[in-house]
Every structure is written in structure tokens, then in C-alpha cells.
Design brief:
With 321 residues, this protein is of the alpha+beta class. It has 11 helices and 10 strands. It folds into 3 domains: 122 residues; 49 residues, SH3 type barrels (Roll), CATH 2.30.30.60; 82 residues, 2-Layer Sandwich (Alpha-Beta Plaits). Strand 4 and strand 5 form a beta hairpin. The mean pLDDT is 80. It is found in: Cell membrane.
Length: 321
């Protein structure tokens, strides 16, 4: 039954749309010009009347309300479909922004249609003020999170700070690609294939790292330690050489290497290099460069040490004396 009603309100084919629309338009026109007056008098006879509270309702009033509702919501569905096509044709918005904008447009359109239908049917809208106040209290308490997420989604849409296929990282440790943006949540696909539905409010109230907000470049860090017996200046050159030879390494900004500290067992270097597209991953370029550093160190007799400790037994030295 619900599917039949949905097909009447929003038929799929254009032929059926115009047939259903023409039928209800004809009924509305017939009622307006008085051709349905005999039917009205028949359906408003006392035997077809019943009371709801203090109101008398006839079968004709019910049928009239159904026709008006179907007609108004059919027109609304047609306008909604037209608006959806126009929004999808916009090139200045991403796919996720378009989806959210469509939902906002449809929500406003159907709300206005409902008010118009109630007004045409003669229902006093001022009588709904008490109900509106109750709904407002419900939104303020029970629907607070839903309303907050909906408004947050509108803010994300207007700011364009989160778009489809952006690489994001949240404070809670969730990292991945934005796949969809809805009125209540944003779908993020993590690197291990999990699809996490994150409330839109989290993107507004919490700190979010968007790796691809203005560009797709990303910096990679590589830390290396060499032995105190090794030529540290040669090691510095080899580390930079390994980065420059990688095909994903950018020339601008160029890779840089710094001597970071003289540690207990090694002289430690830190090297930074940039890749052009961080969305394809940072682990593989980092792994490739580290393999290259390993090979170059071995070829040039530069040792990568492991932690060592010299233990002196004082009691053993006294016994030897």
C-alpha cells in the first residue's frame, strides 16, 4: 500500500507522471467549477457524517483532502526532481555537497507544501501553535543531536571544508577517505576497508586534519642512526641521494636532512621529503627510501648500530688485583 502511494506521489516514468497529474488536475478543476456538486451533496448526507472531537467530518471532505494532498505533493515531487537535476548540474559543488544541498532543498520544499495543503483544506494554522511549541521542545531535547548534525552538515556544505574523496584524520584516531556526506552523518572509508559513519557535528566541534584540503602533497619523515665510527657527512649525502632517486619525491620542495642528535649508541639523522599525491599512500615511498638507504649504507661501509652497553664488574676487578 505504501509503495502504491509513493508511486502516485512520485511516479517513475514521465508518461505516468503526466497521466496521474492530469487526472488530479481534472478532478480539482471539476470541483472548482461546480461539476462535482451533486457528488458533494450526496457524500455530505447525514448518514455519511461522523464526528471527531468537536468537528463534523464527511466522506466528501476526506476525499477532497486526499485529492488536494496528492495533487500538491505530486507538484512538489515534480519540483523536487527538477531541482535535483539542476543541483546535480552545478559544477562548483562536489558530489557530497550536492547530495546535502538536495536534501536541504527537498526538506524546505515539502515543509512549504504541507503548510499550503493545510491552508487549502481550511485547517486553521494558528491552532497548531501549541503543537509547534511541543515540537520545538522535542527538538530542543530529544532531537538535539539530530538537529545539530543536520545544521553541521549545512555548515560543511557552505564552507566546502570536507568534500568527497578527501583524506581526513580525526582526533579519535579515525583516518580514511570521505565517501559520502548525508544530512546526519559523513561516511569515511578507512585504510582497512571499514566504513565509519561519523556524525557531522564531530567535523565542526573537533579538530580534523584534511590532508587534501587545498592540495594533495604530503611530507614523509625518515629517521636514521649511524655509528660513531662512520663518516657522518657521507651518510648525510647518501640519505638525501636515496630520497632524490625515488620517482615520487618532489623537487620543490626539495628533500632535506638534518643531524638531529648525538645519542647513546648512534648519530641520529632526520630526513623529510615530499610526495605529490598523498592519497596513494605514504608508507610505500617511505619503505622504498629506507630500503635505498640500507643498500647505500652497506655499499659505502656505513654502519647502522644497535644499542650497546659496556658493563664493568667492580668486584671482579678487585678480585683480579
Amino acid at each position: 500500500m505504501s509503495s502504491l502511494f509513493a508511486k502516485i506521489l512520485k511516479p517513475s516514468g514521465w508518461i505516468s507522471s503526466w497521466l496521474i497529474g492530469s487526472l488530479f488536475l481534472a478532478l480539482a478543476a471539476a470541483g472548482y467549477f461546480g461539476y462535482l456538486q451533486p457528488l458533494k451533496e450526496f457524500l455530505e448526507r447525514p448518514e455519511f457524517l461522523f464526528t471527531i472531537g468537536d468537528y463534523e467530518v464527511s466522506v466528501y471532505m476526506i476525499l477532497k483532502a486526499i485529492v488536494i494532498l496528492v495533487l500538491i505533493f505530486w507538484v512538489t515531487a515534480a519540483l523536487s526532481g527538477f531541482g535535483e537535476k539542476r543541483i546535480n548540474a552545478l559544477t562548483s559543488f562536489g558530489a557530497s555537497s550536492k547530495a546535502l544541498l538536495i536534501k536541504v532543498f527537498q526538506s524546505i520544499l515539502y515543509f512549504v507544501a504541507l503548510l499550503l495543503a493545510l491552508d487549502i483544506m481550511g485547517i486553521d494554522l494558528t491552532a497548531l501553535t501549541v503543537l509547534g511549541g511541543a515540537v520545538g521542545i522535542g527538538i530542543g531535547f530529544g532531537l538535539q543531536n539530530i538537529t545539530s548534525n543536520f545544521i553541521s552538515g549545512i555548515i560543511l556544505l557552505s564552507e566546502k571544508s570536507i568534500e568527497k574523496d578527501d583524506l581526513v584524520e580525526l582526533d579519535g584516531g579515525v583516518s580514511g577517505f570521505v565517501r559520502q556526506t548525508h544530512s546526519r552523518y559523513t561516511l569515511v572509508e578507512t585504510f582497512d576497508g571499514k566504513e565509519v559513519m561519523i556524525p557531522n557535528e564531530d567535523f565542526i566541534t573537533n579538530r580534523v586534519t584534511n590532508w587534501t584540503y587545498s592540495n594533495t602533497r604530503g611530507r614523509i619523515e625518515v629517521r636514521t642512526g649511524v655509528s660513531y665510527k662512520s663518516d657522518i657527512r657521507r651518510a648525510h649525502e647518501l640519505i638525501l641521494e636515496a630520497a632524490r632517486e625515488h620517482p615520487d619525491c618532489l623537487e620543490d620542495p626539495a628533500p632535506v636532512c638534518f643531524l638531529e642528535e648525538f645519542a647513546d649508541s648512534s648519530v641520529n639523522f632526520v630526513m623529510y621529503f615530499w610526495v605529490g599525491d598523498v592519497t596513494i599512500g605514504r608508507l610505500k615511498p617511505k619503505s622504498d627510501v629506507m630500503y635505498a638507504i640500507w643498500d647505500k649504507f652497506h655499499a659505502n661501509n656505513i654502519e647502522i648500530p644497535f644499542p650497546q652497553r659496556d658493563v664493568h664488574l667492580i668486584g671482579a676487578e678487585n678480585a683480579a688485583e
